[in-house]
Write a sequence for this structure.
């Protein structure tokens, strides 16, 4: 008499299980975990800078002498990144103009990540162009004066 019968899997069933496991491991296209292109051109750079200035300035109304550069690649600590220089004269909490100030915005993946005071070597020789849109923006619900 033979012993109790054991389940028997054919080689085709084992191959199918292995194939399905392999497909499951490769089902991701890799795009979900992929890093964005760090040097994607910042197409909405003006909008992002205006939004940031609105949050950071003491009085983001009635800005004078506004200038901006086109995005340019600049060397960071280790890698190149897009940057934009902004020059403007804004007001403090007492609504007094503080004088012309240069800022530099750095971009990663096409989006503004940092807007800081510029050093002379960063924006001192920048090719600024007038930015009248910044001067006419009013962030106040009551109107700008």
């Amino acid at each position: 008499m033979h012993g109790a019968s054991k389940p028997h899997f054919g080689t085709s069933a084992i191959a199918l299980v292995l194939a399905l496991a392999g497909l499951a491991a490769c089902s991701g296209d890799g795009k979900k975990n992929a890093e964005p292109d760090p040097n994607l051109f910042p197409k909405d750079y003006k909008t992002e800078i205006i939004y940031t200035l609105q949050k950071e300035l003491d009085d983001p109304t009635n800005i004078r002498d506004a200038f901006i550069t086109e995005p340019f690649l600049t060397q960071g600590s280790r890698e190149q990144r897009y940057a934009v220089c902004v020059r403007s004269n804004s007001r403090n909490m007492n609504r007094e103009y503080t004088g012309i100030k240069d800022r530099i915005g750095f971009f990663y993946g096409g989006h503004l990540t940092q807007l800081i005071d510029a050093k002379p070597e960063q924006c001192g020789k920048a090719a600024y162009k007038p930015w009248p849109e910044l001067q006419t923006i009013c962030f106040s619900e009551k109107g700008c004066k």
